[in-house]
From TrEMBL:
Tagged with keyword Membrane: no
Keywords: Acyltransferase, Transferase
Listed name of the protein: N-acetyltransferase domain-containing protein
SUPFAM superfamilies xref list: Acyl-CoA N-acyltransferases (Nat)
Keyword Acyltransferase appears in the UniProt entry: yes
InterPro entries: Acyl_CoA_acyltransferase, GNAT_dom, N-acetyltransferase
Family the entry assigns: Belongs to the acetyltransferase family. RimJ subfamily.
Length: 162
């Protein structure tokens, strides 16, 4: 069984393990976080929780029965009813519909619990998994962008129309 949980102080060790175990896997499709991220993980975790408490972000983890993190789904830059969605799923949990299903649940939460009316997201054109997840959840292209030196798309979804 998987559980969708709001990021909390007690997640720090499991989240660091998730990021370390999947670092090379993630770096094949998105920017590597860099060594500083891992060296300063504890301080950053505290900062994220402070931002969340201030209502600037909403962070979520998908956690298995053993407490291992299988995915993280973040809503950042909350502003005037809008937020930016980002997500990553562990290599060992990939290809099972986890991202598709969890983005659907995050969109519901965003509208009901967080009072948001619109989400945006960005994906590189050579990241078909991410684009598929977003399109299946009703995100449509807004504009072409450059995402860390790669052509990409900014997509958006209105949360008020369904
Ligand atoms: C992109 C990512 C979140 C997808 O997670 P996931 O849980 O495997 O996604 P799903 O199982 O819901 O897959 C959605 C669809 O995309 C397809 N897909 C996933 N990865 C793919 C890939 N590399 N190439 C082509 N299609 C892919 C799946 O096959 C699935 O389609 P299907 O149901 O027809 O088989 C995950 O691969 C990941 O974390 N990648 C690294 C980080 C990243 O790219 N994050 C997104 C940044 S915008």
């Amino acid at each position: 069984m998987f559980d969708l949980q709001r990021l909390a102080a007690g997640h720090a060790a499991a989240l660091l393990r998730f990021e370390l175990e999947n670092r090379a896997y993630f770096a094949r499709s998105i920017s590597d976080r860099g060594d500083d991220y891992f060296a300063e993980f504890a301080e950053r975790h505290e900062l994220l929780l402070a931002e969340q408490a201030a209502g600037l972000c909403h962070f979520h983890l998908v956690v298995d029965d053993d407490g291992a993190v299988l995915g993280r789904f973040n809503l950042v830059d909350v502003d005037q009813g809008s937020a930016e969605l980002g997500f990553r799923v562990a290599e060992r949990a990939a290809g099972q519909g986890l991202a598709t299903d969890t983005v659907r649940r995050i969109c519901e939460l965003a509208g009901t619990d967080y009072g948001l009316t619109r989400l945006v997201a960005a994906a590189a054109l050579d990241n078909p998994g991410s684009l598929t997840v977003l399109r299946r959840n009703g995100f449509t292209p807004i504009e072409e962008i450059i995402l860390v030196n790669r052509p990409g798309l900014r997509l958006g979804r209105d949360l008020t129309s369904r």
